[in-house]
Fold each of these.
Amino acid sequence: MNYFFQLVISGIVVGSIYALSGLGFVLIYKSSRVLNIAHGQIIAAGAFITYALTVWVDIPIYISFPMSMVLTFFLAMSVERVFLRRLIGEPIISVIMVTIGLMSILDGLIYLTPFGSENFSFPPFLPTTPISVAGVSVSWTQMVGVVITFTLIGAFSWFFKKSTVGISMRAVSDDQMASMSIGISVPRVFGLAWATAGLSAAAAGGIIGNITGLNFETLHAFGIIVFPVVILGGLDSILGAVVAGIIMGLVQQFASGYLDGNWGLSGTGEVMPYIILLVILLFKPHGLFGIHEIERV
Amino acid sequence: MKKKSMIGWMSLLVAVTMLTLPVQSLAGKVYKLGLSLAITGPTSDAGNPYSKGVEDYFNFVNDTKILGDDKIECTIRDDQYNNDVTKRNFEDFISQGIVFYLNYSTGSTLALKKDFEEEKMAVIPASFHAGNLIDSHYIFLPIASYSTQAIGLGEYIVKNHKGGTPKVAMFIHPSAFGRGPVEDLQKAVAAGLKMEIVEVVEHGKDLDNTAMLQRLLSKGVQYVISQTVQSPVATMLKDASGLGLVAKSFGEAGKITFLGCHYTGGNDLIALAGASAENFYWTTSYIVTNEPSPGATAQLELAKKYNRDEKAANSHNYTNGMMVAQVATEVIKRAKAAGKEITKVTLYEELQAMNGDKAFSPGTTVGPVTYSKTDHTGVDTLQLYVVGGGVFKSVGTPFIPVFAEKIK
């Protein structure tokens, strides 16, 4: 029974990190209907900035971590300003193609730094002995990761529901022309969407980097790994990202835990989330919490 | 007047030609080589220092006139771990007239096997996949294959395990690179290597290995042999270390001893896993720079000469790149000494003649490089290392796995 509960806890931990990683996709899509293919590179950039501030500038990690979130906030905002602002009003496919180009540019820039082809790890700052209750363990890094994830997700949910800026962002997502007609600055909203996505990506990068070590390939792969999570949850739903993240985390852990090593199976944790995704999308094509828009002609 | 001027110009042209001819013949020959690898993109953490090792050694050969007035011109191209780009690079190198080719990944080596056969081009890849040698006459592994490495680790487990039959799990990359040694280790077990392979785990981008480690422990697994790259091993070691599952001494009861093949270890593993890498056992045919040896001194001096940083200088991938460049240089040197013209044919012949009293000791490996018509594996010898105090230290002396030969 302990094993079962261990899988549940591990699934929730992994799933919440997926949710945080996927949040950036949702934030941008929610306000601009754009899929940011370069999200993984921003996750990696956030992790590297945290490392550089912690190790090279010698700033304690509890300060360097929020600092890197702020820096990535502005970095993502600049990216939007330079590359995407002039595409407002252009077909979505053009904007997505630009994000693919952006991915290559960010890749190239990171390869110019030592982070592109070297490995690093954060200096230990949390107890190494995991938290264990009744034989179920979770590491301090993961625990802190979960707390940060839920704090950020709570904050973003509040922001979109209650704050004026958040409501403006939702309005832009709903109808750009109508939003402009009531005085909302669409370019400013887009910039903010990218900036907040950058902020969440830096948080995700910092957490993943602490768990896996800092390897560029591993970090930017999370931009793709969380893709089924946001599709399942619904591309424009923060709650969807959380629920889908946890579902995916649990499915992955249970598949690895109960299927791998039996009947000659291996690597099922990688495949099962996609099978579940396909099955759910058959019944809910817009994802679990995605908005189904009906257009009247 | 016109005629006089014409004669003047002609005389000048003849004089210039006469003067430059001896200079040209003194300049020596240029031997073209090619290397395509991932300097950026996936696995560039290995490819980048590897390319530096190759580049520095060939520069050293030219600067110190190891080949006299002749020079090696090795074009190094980044393929970003993309087989299509590797193929394009190789074809381009062929059109430039290369006499020797250095390749990189398992995937591209398998994909280009037929091209190497068609071009009759001797190739040394950075991949030690045993499958590279199947149906191939032109691929030469620089060191013992991943299969031999895994079997070597298995033999060490069997030799040093206390109690009954040791229970082993394999932790592998989900690719031909990772799966390669599984079947061969199973064959070794069938041939009498007294251990039980309980489970083969194909990893993904795992953020948590707690459940997997607990499952292995519940099945009585005491040893995990990894055949993958450093990052997933580092995550597993961090989880195992947090749970207190890492054996402090080899085969400690109730704990797991972690071991791995060439690309799981080296300083990159320590950089990723930090203190969790302690007591990780690793095998390769290369020397390490933190242990004094003539090869280590030569490597560090080479890296210093060409202004490489500490990380590159001490990387086992730099050693790897340097070693293949040493082998390529040696075959050119031998062909020259034998008075042969340097072509892909003569270099292929020299490579296959590298055995017996013609075995080559580059100093960067723990044993000699030997090739023959029937043996395309360079260094057969392996060395076991263990992480202690943040560095890899030798355990015992170099050895050749017995079962690797038995299952052939």
Amino acid sequence: MIISSTIKMKDEEFAELADIIYKNAGITFTINKKYLLENRLTKRLSELNFSSYKDYIYYLKYDVKRREEMKVLMNLVTINETYFLRERAQMDHMIKKVIPELVSKGKRSFKIWSAACSSGEEPYSIAILLNEEGLYGKYNFDIYATDINTEVISIAEKGIYRSVSFRGVTPSIIEKYFVKNGLDFQLKPEIKSKVKFFQANLMESLASSKIGMTDFIFCRNVLIYFDVEAKKKVVDMFYKTLQIGGQLYLGHSETLSKIDDRFKMVNFGSGIAYVK
Amino acid sequence: MANINPTENGVVVIKIPGNPEINDFKDARDFINNSQGLKEIRLDLKDVSFLQSKFIAELIAIKKLSTLKNSKLILTNVQEGVFQMLEISNLIDHFSIGKDFRSYEPNELIYLLMDPELNDSVIEFIANNFDDTFRNLIAEFLKSEDPILIEAAVMIIGKSHSFDMVEEVKKCLTSPFPNVVRGAILVLGWFGEEDCKGEIYQFLKSEHIDVAEAAAATISLLADENDSIAIKEYLESPDERLRRIAIQALSLINDDFSYKFLLEHLGREKDEQLRTQLAKAISYYNKPEVPGILLSMLSENSIKIREAAASSLVRIKATDKIDDILELVSDKDVWVAYFAVKAVGALCKSQKCVDVLVKNYPKVDTQVKIAIIEALGNIGLDCSEFIFQLVEDENEDIRKEALNSLALINSDMAAEAAYNALNDKIWVVRFKAIEIIEDKKPADYKDKLKDFLKTETNRYVREKIQSIVGEL
């Protein structure tokens, strides 16, 4: 439905909603991100016939369907739009620089964790690039992909995308790995089968337990939504999950400065990796 | 060296270089100190990826100086490393942070356009500052194969009212990308391109709901009396989706024909979702019989339809139906009761309504109780004794709402209750109390709030107090 304008949020409503979101997902919305919450929730309010966020807060607190609604809210606020081969330099660094080095030292199996995979573009991009480099068949790769948002996980598992997911991707890659069906692009099974998806909340200590020790973690454009304490907690979990020498890749604007000094920062020119 | 750019309207942009030195901040301070009538200071940190501790002290000094000079300080284009530094120093709540796209080169803006969270704001910015540089930029976008850039170009043309580029927009109707087609349809509507209406009709049947909805919106913008008749046929479609788009289009057209067709369709439509949509659609018509229709829909079995009808009654000014609405206050469906109470609060100013709400209060669910307290405040007649006792209720939302309504009814009582509520164990109540104190401004309230700040631990409450007392 075309909503004529966003429903504006009062400061009091923002504080209460931000608190609810923080307690349930560990995501911090500071007041300068209020517009983001307004954009993401206006449509939901309209669906529920509410004209104010106060009505919605009471719905979340008192309605018999409050648990289901909390999931809806979490899905709305954690949705992270992305696209194939976004910030590719880090993937190239892993595939063309780090993996060959590890191979030269005798390593043959690699585990890669896309820790906030959204609708799957990131882990599938990694699988595509591994394939492009001819590494499948020579070595063993396990790619795990998690997200807090159950809705995006289900999209990822289907592997069906629209053109907006391909901004900046060359037609030859699209043609090679996707089957066009009308306006849909279906990922071919040989790449789809390379990624295992499941739901995980990075704020929960069990998030990494299903993965086990891993060699590479991609967690990009997610920590920006966490406050310092939550960032420290998540990064500590990453540290414990990474093998010695394992690499953590964050979004281009994110930094571990003042968050965790155990990682060694490696600037490889077109990006940064944090090494355990 | 800091780059200082004052503007005519009392706003100054001070750009701090990528590797700042103390003197850059001192220059900024000197400028602020020597200036008169500065309304807003924008400290642009776009090129600063990290700030050492010594610069944090400089930032605090600038903040204090701007407060002293009654100027609003905004840190713009703050990178994550600096943001994190401010957060670690517990300073984040003391600074307003914003984006200022003027600092970015056109090629940098392309990068920002690709960020889904910034896309809309960048489009707005370019449209508002449209010149030959941007004209060349969007010409490049239109030549690209990137659907995001093409859509951005179309939306920028629309929002900058660049009518001379309408032919480029029309070409986009045949784009293979649905987001581009949607943009083109919307822009052609804004431009009043009636010649395209026939072509846009075909998109009502688009498999992409965004495209179909855009077509409905544009057709309504370009509509004459024939369009309601043309769209009416879609109401007969066996395709539920198409009927939904038709209802939307007709309600947007909002003429006598469309009203008649929607009403007729209400008599036939069986689908629950569509009947819900019809309840909302009809409430947007200013017709005397609409309140009666909505009230009759309250006797349907579907909870969704009843809730939509009840919520629509809040929107329309059905003052002559207040007795019927009052009966719904004790409805078995909690949200029908909730919306009925909201409607009473919005429409009624009589003691009778107060009496009915107070009488029903003990019998209803929590969220309806909260709505009743809010409605009593909106009605504004004195029932402060009833509300005052609720300030001590065990439920925090009832306490909070009672404070709010008390503030609307009895200022003195509200200030007293608000001071007491500063010790409430739940922060949302304390937050509300502070809002009321800020609004009522009792004697020495800033000093009292400063004292209270010493022991307050909740970040939202602290932030609120700090914004009132201006303390760093």
